[in-house]
Amino acid sequence: SGPGSGTSAASDAASVAPGKSGGTFVFLPKSLNNPYWVDARKGMEAEAKKLGVKAQFLGPDNDDAAAQVQIFDSVLATNPAGIAISPNDPASVVGDIAKARAAGIPVIAWDGPVPNSQVLGYIGTNNVAAGEQAGEALASAIGNKGKVAVVIGSLTAVNLNQRLEGVKKALAKHPDIKLVATQTSGESVATAQSAAETILQAQPDLSGMIGIGGSDLPGIAGALKSGGKCGSIKAVGFDVVPQGIAGMKGGCVDALISQKPFGMTAQALQILVDLDKGKPGPGKDFNIDTGVVTVTPSTLDEFLKTEH
Amino acid sequence: MVILLIIFLSIASPYFLTPGNITVVGRQIALALIISTGMTFVILIGGIDLSVGSIVALVSVLTGGAMVSLGLPPVVAVLIALLGGLAVGVVNGVINAYGGLPSFVVTLGMLAAARGVALGITGGSTISGFPEPFLFLGQGSIAGVPVPIWIAAVIAVVAHVVLTRTTYGRHIFFVGSNEEAAVLSGIDVRRIKVSVFVISAGLAAVSGILETSRLSVGQPGAGNGYELLAIGAAVIGGASLFGGVGGVLGTALGTTLLLLIQNALILLGISPYWQQVFSGAIIVGAVALNQWRRRRA
Amino acid sequence: MVILLIIFLSIASPYFLTPGNITVVGRQIALALIISTGMTFVILIGGIDLSVGSIVALVSVLTGGAMVSLGLPPVVAVLIALLGGLAVGVVNGVINAYGGLPSFVVTLGMLAAARGVALGITGGSTISGFPEPFLFLGQGSIAGVPVPIWIAAVIAVVAHVVLTRTTYGRHIFFVGSNEEAAVLSGIDVRRIKVSVFVISAGLAAVSGILETSRLSVGQPGAGNGYELLAIGAAVIGGASLFGGVGGVLGTALGTTLLLLIQNALILLGISPYWQQVFSGAIIVGAVALNQWRRRRA
Amino acid sequence: MADHPVVAMRGIVKTYPGVRALSSVDLSIRSGEVMALVGENGAGKSTLLKILAGAARADEGQILVDGERVAINSPRDAQDAGIAVIYQELNLASHLSVAENVYVGREPRTRLGTVDFGAMRRGSEALLRGLGVSLDSTRLVGDLNIAMRQMVEIAKALLVNARVVVMDEPTSSLTEEEVDALLALVRRLRESGVAVVYVSHRMREIFEIADRITVLRDGAVVGVREADAARPGDIVQMMVGRDLEDLYGVRASNVDEKAVPALEVRGLGCGALLHDVSFSVRPGEIVALSGLIGAGRSHAALAIFGARRRTAGQVLLDGVPRRFRSPKDAMAAGIGLVPEDRKAQGLFLGLPVRENMSSASLASISRLAFVSGRRDRALAGRFAQQLNLRSSALEVGAGTLSGGNQQKVVLARWLARSPRVLILDEPTRGVDVGAKAEIYALIRRIAADGVAVLVISSELTEVLGIADRIVVMREGYGVGELDASDATEKRVMALATGVQDDGTSYLAQNSERS
Ligand SMILES: Nc1ncnc2c1ncn2[C@@H]1O[C@H](COP(=O)(O)OP(=O)(O)OP(=O)(O)O)[C@@H](O)[C@H]1O
Ligand SMILES: Nc1ncnc2c1ncn2[C@@H]1O[C@H](COP(=O)(O)OP(=O)(O)OP(=O)(O)O)[C@@H](O)[C@H]1O
Ligand SMILES: [Mg+2]
Ligand SMILES: [Mg+2]
């Protein structure tokens, strides 16, 4: 749907207001502590300003399913105009989604799907597909052969595990590529860098590395830089965050997979506002894939000009 | 203090005193209180249990594994998970009491090990698809009050009575107040030590099962950081990490305070980026106020 | 014990003793050691400092904000960040010493508040684009040895000398051993208390600056969980949470053990799903072995 | 009276790292007798009794109860064998009430199975009354002063109907009144056939109560005597290996009567605990502060020292009113205080003896904030010699010393500072006779050097033996002052209790103040 012009197609007077209930729209990200979510929040804020609605961005400090459900619980008490949820664990939010719907609050899944739930639809990317793109990007960067290693933010986060699954799927298509090490970083750049540094010690003939979580590629880039391996070992990661950009400009990063959180979130807010106004929105059980983009040094400048 | 906060909140936010919100906060408090009650026992003897969060994770995946993956009946699965949790407590207690290692070290090791096992047996994935009867534990209500609140209330009352009215409870205080004197008075200090770690682990396991049911998912990442919450609740409630001082009543107030803050900051619409500043200040302020009041009394 | 581990590792992994790996582990140990040295001071007086991780975060964004966002010269920016860290220590110490609140509560509040400020002023985003001279601090080497290792070594040696050879160091042990006796011996206990929190915060700030430089990024999420690592290192090194017992030497061994384990598990190619189980077991095993050896001596 | 001993210890050997505490000790106790165990500080008395109590394990030797060999591996075992113990270093839980401490491990239960707090309260108060103290048993032990805690510890041991009661210096903090009550109780125990082992450094008590005396020296028994046949001098000779003619030394009165008092207290008040306490100490003078337990003497000392906030009155040094906000201020002005409770207020138990000794005078042995190891050791060595402490003990933790030797360490700390006003609160608590004589000589020597000394002591003979003047307190009030020349036990007691020989109250005429 297009940008909400507000007054059209209104059968009842209340819908003249920017939102039928006049309430706040709430976004529930997995956490706050990550540049990816900063871009997402900026997308929400920009769109909220454009549409003249109130929107809130509420998440736990770290990716934590129980903490997120607690926030969800508390948010329900404030009777918001609409909710977009990016679940840390899909199964854990099914109950609250049902409660919200029962209270007449529209809920959509955003950034990560919630299968078997009463969400009105999903807008976001397919993490498995994104993982496959990352795997392919790395494969082509290293010439389809060699040893590669993975640093992953958490072994328990559903979205990261899906990305890892995609990466493995893509690498499996290249018989000459071997995944020799997987380490976790606990979503910390410092730990990611330490892990990557240590992997470099243990695997002197490594060809490439993939950082799965938002903090992982920055750590890998740092490790390559301090080990003097920029360029000789290829690095691929997710999210176009400042350090990733800096790393790419410094020749330490070869590809970034962007989920375009800014645009994705802006569009999600648009959908919520439409739903709140009683507009049909994108349809029943919509599934909008906002797509992932592989950014390489040659396409970086072009990409940065877009609202990603 | 907590009362003051509640009054303030009722005025400041129209949502606070709605039945919906009270149920929500009540359930959150209940789950946390079960763990911090167990922690209170350990702290009373001058120990510390860092492994409670990992026990929640372990129990969560054990429940899921037994019930969903193996398809065992809910009762059996819950029992298995409980036993798993208790076993962790026995290991903690025995190494601490008989091996003489500081409880901080033992349970720090267990913090890593128990979560490692949870991670290892699931390979990191989460388990869902629990049968409906099991979900009643965490999501259902009896007489309009959520089941976890009933369970937490019973546990807290029993724990309070045990600590204040039974010889076992008084011996816990004695051990915490002066371990050497306890030995010389003929108390079997080592047995008491093992027992408090078993209680702490057991209650963490109960909370883990309830949380699994409430979230409908068994996950190896569950319970992260709960140890700090539980220790914080007990200490805010007046318990001393040096042992011998504390009680379930104080811990309940501490738990309530910590969780009310989180709820309140959301209800009041404080920017999530600044929420932690408030919550830190409120914690310190509340304890300071309490201390000041007690000194004047 | 640590020596045993090193010997074992040298045999088990051909990569362990390479200069590259030693540099890598050395730098990691250095950063952690700076924090745990400060923590040792606090633990020696029977206190605890949970805020060190948050101080790392605060300092990290202060450095970034001052140097990158405001464009101040590196030296000025580093000083501002250091002062910010020290200020946190002063607040911790004053509330603890003069307000009489338990250090656990004060620094638990600060754990939330300092990170909240870091999160608030950045809005959650990270800051990069540091000037090259600043990056030398964390990434450069002098005489082939990384700068952080030099700094950590100097800090550890100075701290060791202060604790074992100066009147101030003696006073710290007195306060931790028996606070009332220390007061009656004419020691200004409150000043000592404030000072150890300032030292702990100051060293956490130094480590935060080095980490920011090493990672080339100022981030509000930095330092998460460092408090547990630092306390663990001190306690594994023989410090008692009840105060009066411990030292920089032990803490250095504890820090080394904790970080070597992480390094080793990666080098040995242990499955990441099971790594934590090993690391928990090694921690407990190492301390048990130590205890057993000391008892036999 | 049975002939065979109730308890016999045979060939007990115990070594601690670097110390042979006991080498092949035999001890036998018959039922219905009081066996006194005496010896110098560190002779091994407490160690021997701890082995009997199951609190320490002997390296060699055996214990026989009623002629049967028993294994006592824990305090429980000893309790089961009918042995009750009053430990020298009090073992109470300060966060719990008096009643709970008395009944620990033997709590009476209600029909519901919960602890019967009422019965505990009544029982413990009755026990304490039997010891001549009335004490609210719901009070926390941590709030009691050390003498009261000692009474609680005694009550705790008496709760069980033991066949053997072991008392390790039960009277070290008590005044005559309580001592008399306790000795009466010991006699009752003896009559009912209980065997009592009694340890004390107060010779008077020993000869008052003991049937037989066992003397320990350097971890070995040097003799067992029938009390009737023994002379105090002989026993002391056996203990310390030399004669002690005059315990208290000669009073050297070089006090300038007209000198401005080095310390003067005027109308000192402190909440509900102290009221209108006034006295003065001139340079070179030794003044004793006397009174019953809880009279407020220790509190007065702490208030003078800046460790307790005073609410009324003045403290003057050399005639100048001073206000100390902390002990640090008081020390800077030249006051020193040896506190009464060495474990809680004095010692850094886990730290080496040497560091304990120099802890209040670090400034004088350091340069530029660095402690001089050489001067540190020299200081410790000097006082170890003066106070008869083995110098090998200087590097061990203070907590491993025997009780009397710990007391010497705290004394050394304050002597090392050479203050101008020295307050000694129970300076000889638990110290053996030989060392006592040395401490008295030392006190006289520093007084002769012009130091004003204020001694608080519960041992009346000590007060009479050493003081130039005696100030008496009762229930927080200063009630009188006596000159050494006309002070007698009776007159001091009359002031302290407020009851004269004829039974009339003393209060009416307590204006004897100078
Ligand atoms: N835990 C311990 N560790 C090391 N040495 C110890 C320990 N306990 C006692 N000792 C040593 O054993 C010896 C005997 O001490 P003990 O306490 O039995 O003496 P005591 O006769 O009771 O003296 P006092 O009259 O001063 O109480 C002393 O040299 C003491 O230092
Ligand atoms: N901080 C306190 N709070 C409450 N009561 C106290 C406190 N300090 C002392 N007391 C009580 O005040 C009374 C006076 O105690 P204090 O120790 O000063 O007496 P004392 O004359 O030194 O007795 P002793 O001869 O036993 O040393 C005692 O009953 C004691 O229990
Ligand atoms: Mg003794
Ligand atoms: Mg006294």
Set out the fold topology.
The complex is a heterotetramer, with one copy of chain A (308 residues), two copies of chain B (297 residues) and one copy of chain D (514 residues).
Chain A: E1 24-28, H1 35-51, E2 54-57, H2 65-77, E3 82-85, H3 90-102, E4 107-110, E5 121-124, H4 127-141, E6 146-152, H5 158-172, E7 177-184, H6 189-202, E8 206-211, H7 216-226, E9 234-238, H8 242-249, E10 255-258, H9 261-276, E11 286-289, E12 293-295, H10 300-305
Parallel strand pairs in A: 1-2, 1-3, 3-4, 4-5, 5-11, 6-7, 6-8, 8-9, 9-10
Antiparallel strand pairs in A: 10-12
Helix pairs in contact in A: 1-9, 2-3, 4-5, 6-7
Chain B: H1 2-12, H2 19-44, H3 52-69, H4 74-97, H5 103-122, E1 127-128, H6 132-139, E2 141-142, E3 145-146, H7 147-165, H8 167-177, H9 179-184, H10 189-215, E4 217-218, H11 226-236, H12 248-267, H13 272-296
Antiparallel strand pairs in B: 1-4, 2-3
Helix pairs in contact in B: 1-12, 2-7, 2-10, 2-11, 2-12, 3-4, 3-5, 3-10, 4-5, 4-10, 6-10, 7-8, 8-10, 11-12, 12-13
Chain D: E1 7-16, E2 19-29, E3 34-39, H1 45-53, E4 60-65, E5 68-70, H2 75-80, E6 83-86, H3 98-103, H4 117-130, H5 146-159, E7 164-168, H6 176-191, E8 195-199, H7 203-209, E9 212-217, E10 220-226, H8 232-240, E11 263-270, E12 274-281, E13 286-291, H9 297-304, E14 312-317, E15 320-322, H10 327-332, E16 335-338, H11 342-346, H12 353-358, E17 366-367, E18 370-371, H13 373-386, H14 403-415, E19 421-425, H15 433-448, E20 452-456, H16 460-466, E21 469-474, E22 477-483, H17 489-497
Parallel strand pairs in D: 3-8, 3-9, 6-7, 7-8, 13-20, 13-21, 16-19, 19-20
Antiparallel strand pairs in D: 1-2, 1-4, 4-5, 9-10, 11-12, 11-14, 14-15, 17-18, 21-22
The complex binds adenosine-5'-triphosphate (2 copies) and magnesium ion (MG) (2 copies).
